[in-house]
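Dig into these lines:

——
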Amino acid sequence: MGKILLPLLILLLGAGVGGASGFGVRQVLGPPAAAGPSKPAKVETTLVPLPRMTAPLVLPDGRLSGYVAFEEQLEVPTEEAARVTAQLPYLQHAINMRTYRIPLAAGRDGALPNIDVFRRVTLDAATEAFGRGVVRRVAVTQAVPA
């Protein structure tokens, strides 16, 4: 019984000493600073319109269903609007390089465009063209058969 009691007593004393030292350090140094989530600074944004783009409506099996013309606007910080407007051809190129590989056709006959997929394609292309975090949102304002 003595073999079990001695390690248990040492364990309890160690826990007591450790707890007392932690309490003492907190009393001397004070409580930690509040580490709550800080509110991000509000950034002024503006909408930059994209020229009308024509994209192929590709079915999931890779066949061409038709073409669709899109009009979009990009939500960007106000200080980045001039740079984004000047570099729109790079964005258009990046979109064109993606649309023929990604199935954009929706519906039973593939005549409708999938707006969410096209929005995601544009956002991925914007990350490539302008860098991460420049384009906050993409708004597809019109999609018509071409």
